[in-house]
Design brief:
alpha+beta, Aminopeptidase, 2 domains, twelve-stranded mixed sheet, 11 helices, 36% helix
């Protein structure tokens, strides 16, 4: 195939590092289902922040890529060595023509898991490729089909959400779209407050600094901030690739919750992406027992689906189940922990938990 990225490689399975492959994202153009999380920019963030090794499994046939699955190898003295597709990623499904073509690739991934001493390989999403393998963990996913007609798009939103947006618009809030480091810093302060409320340590600023360098500065995302009198009161981080946008992080100052700034941030991003020709807006994963967050996402007129993770235990030689560890006793500990200590724990811990 002329000008196909796959034509640079002989037929067969290859383990590639997207940071070393010129025009990696052009490869993704062969797959309609490719998302931002398959891109080289996200690989740079994960590798640059935590030192994970990119091992992107691809199969080439007749000069074209027929299947692809990103893997990051985590080598931790605390949690062991394993392959994750991908760390800190809500969903990163395999890309391929069909389940049959992916099965050959999966076999090679599991062979490498044994050779490299992984405790397990974990895939995030892609039920249609996984046959009858049992899910290790399940989450809700929510996706909004974007419409160019803003009025029609807003009409699909629940009436309670529309009221919240209108209230926010009348509260004197200003909305800022930015790709600059200063906005990232403001967002990270809000995120620290939000993570403490939720009983979760905040991810290190280096992670978000790398997002700014490798994603925002390369025009593949936005920080959207709502300000009241110049003070940041809510914000979110969005990524995009092709015609798909992804809501990745959100944060707010609880003292300004009555202004409904979160709703205005979300609506501002949705209508901007719709006006720029994007066709889908992904709200990320939601734990099955987080009914409040689920209702918030459904309120935007989204389509709900099940996002399943798959974990193959190398020692047992089979797919196994795991619990959703996003909630538990640790939330109570981190909720009461001083913020400076929570930041320190996050800086140390996130590299190992992936």
């Amino acid at each position: 195939m002329v000008n196909s990225p796959g034509s640079a490689f002989p037929d067969g399975v290859h383990i590639l590092n997207p940071l070393e492959v010129a025009d990696w994202d052009a490869t993704l153009g062969q797959f309609a289902a490719a998302t931002f999380f398959h891109t080289a920019a996200w690989a740079r963030v994960l590798h640059g922040t935590y030192g994970y090794q990119p091992l992107y499994f691809t199969e080439v046939a007749s000069g074209r890529f027929v299947s692809l699955l990103p893997v990051m190898e985590i080598d931790s003295w605390l949690t062991g060595r394993r392959g994750i597709s991908l760390p800190f990623t809500d969903e990163c499904a395999p890309l391929g023509d069909d389940a049959v073509s992916f099965q050959h690739l999966l076999e090679q991934i599991l062979v490498q898991a044994g050779k490299r001493g992984w405790k397990y390989w974990e895939g995030r999403g892609g039920r249609s490729f996984m046959g009858d393998a049992p899910a290790s963990t399940s989450f809700y996913g929510h996706r909004l089909v974007l419409l160019a007609d803003e009025a029609a798009l807003f009409a699909r939103v629940d009436s309670s959400v529309r009221r919240a947006v209108r209230k926010a618009e009348q509260s004197g809030l200003s909305i800022e779209f930015s790709q600059e480091m200063a906005a990232v810093r403001d967002f990270h302060v809000l995120l620290g407050k939000t993570r403490q409320r939720h009983g979760v340590p905040v991810q290190p600023f280096d992670f978000f600094a790398n997002i700014q360098r490798h994603v925002l500065a390369e025009k593949q995302g936005w920080v959207v901030l709502a300000r009241q009198g110049g003070i940041p009161v809510a914000g979110a981080v969005f990524f995009h690739f092709g015609r798909g946008a992804i809501y990745k992080f959100g944060a707010s100052d609880e003292a300004f919750q009555h202004l409904r700034a979160n709703n205005l941030v979300m609506w501002s991003a949705i209508k901007r992406y719709a006006s720029e020709g994007f066709t889908s807006f992904d709200f990320g994963r939601t734990s099955l027992d987080n009914e409040g967050l689920r209702r918030f996402k459904l309120g935007w007129g989204t389509q709900e689906n099940l996002v399943e993770y798959f974990r193959h235990d190398s020692k047992a030689g089979r797919f196994v189940t795991a619990r959703d560890e996003s909630s538990g006793w640790h939330n109570h500990v981190f909720r009461r922990m001083p913020r400076f200590l929570s930041r320190f724990v996050g800086r140390v811990l996130y590299k190992h938990i992936a």
